[in-house]
């Protein structure tokens, strides 16, 4: 399959698909952090390049629930939120048969639609992260858990924030896709779609 991983500079998801034998490319306005097939630029200029599958990680700065309260009365943030949502809608409307959009809980549930699935990283072997991740899917099945483990309890018994989140100060590091999650996508979203792509 030809796989486009939109808005990814880490190469984590791209490399998971590449390891399964697919022609996988990441694309971002930032250079890739690890060697591999990477398109440097605006992904919207490459949506018509004949992809079978796109995994998209659009920026969540103006979309996540964590920052929505800052939009009230702030016309600049409201404008940027609308632009961010329009970008996601453009990705979802791309002429690609199989699409997954990944983002935190937030504005997209109103602007786009309710997500097809909400996943938790402890279902993919990562006990340290509690934040739910939403998936908007087009012609893709819901992901099945691969290695469910209990969440690591927060210091002091807190339920909302994990120690990993508190200790991970960098927004860049917080945005990286967990490897177990990337592997689940590569394993589960290529078996059935691969046959369909070959038959087209």
List keywords for this structure.
single chain; about 200 residues; alpha/beta; Rossmann fold; seven-stranded mixed β-sheet; 8 helices; 7 strands; about 30% helix; globular
Name the helicity range. Answer: 25-40%
Q: Please report the total strand number as a whole number.
A: 7
Strand content: 15-25%
Radius of gyration: 17 Å
Question: Helix and strand succession?
Answer: EHEEEHHEHEEHHHH
Question: What is the makeup of the main sheet?
Answer: 7 strands, mixed
SSE inventory with pairings:
Blueprint: E1 2-6, H1 12-19, E2 23-28, E3 38-40, E4 53-56, H2 65-68, H3 75-92, E5 98-104, H4 108-111, E6 117-119, E7 133-138, H5 163-167, H6 171-175, H7 179-188, H8 191-199
Parallel strand pairs: 1-2, 1-4, 2-3, 4-5
Antiparallel strand pairs: 5-7, 6-7
Helix pairs in contact: 1-7
Task: Describe the structure in your own words.
The protein has 200 residues and is α/β, with parallel strands linked by helices. The chain has a single domain, classed as Vaccinia Virus protein VP39 (Rossmann fold, 3-Layer(aba) Sandwich). Helices cover 32% and strands 17% of the residues. It contains eight helices and seven strands; from the N terminus they run E-H-E-E-E-H-H-E-H-E-E-H-H-H-H. The protein has helices at residues 12-19, 65-68, 75-92, 108-111, 163-167, 171-175, 179-188, 191-199; strands at 2-6, 23-28, 38-40, 53-56, 98-104, 117-119, 133-138. Strands 3-2-1-4-5-7-6 form a seven-stranded mixed sheet, sandwiched between helices. Helix 1 packs across helix 7 (179-188). The longest helix is centred in the middle third of the chain and has 18 residues, at 75-92. It starts with a strand and ends with a helix. Mean pLDDT is 83; it is low at 157-161.
């Amino acid at each position: 399959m030809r796989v486009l991983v939109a808005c990814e500079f880490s190469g984590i998801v791209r490399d998971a698909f590449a390891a399964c034998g697919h022609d996988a490319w990441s694309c971002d306005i930032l250079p890739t952090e690890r060697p591999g097939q990477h398109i440097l630029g605006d992904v919207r200029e490459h949506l018509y390049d004949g992809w079978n599958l796109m995994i998209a990680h659009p920026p969540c700065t103006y979309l996540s629930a964590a920052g929505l309260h800052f939009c009230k009365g702030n016309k600049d943030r409201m404008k940027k939120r609308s632009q961010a949502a329009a970008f996601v809608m453009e990705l979802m409307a791309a002429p690609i048969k199989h699409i997954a959009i990944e983002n935190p809980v937030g504005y997209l549930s109103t602007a786009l639609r309710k997500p097809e699935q909400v996943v938790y990283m402890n279902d993919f072997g990562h006990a340290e992260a509690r934040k739910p991740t939403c998936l908007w899917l087009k012609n893709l099945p819901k992901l099945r858990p691969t290695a469910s483990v209990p969440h690591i309890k927060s210091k002091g018994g807190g339920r909302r924030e994990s120690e990993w989140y508190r200790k991970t100060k960098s927004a860049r590091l917080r945005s990286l896709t967990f490897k177990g999650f990337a592997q689940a996508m590569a394993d589960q979203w290529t078996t059935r779609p691969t046959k369909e792509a070959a038959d087209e």
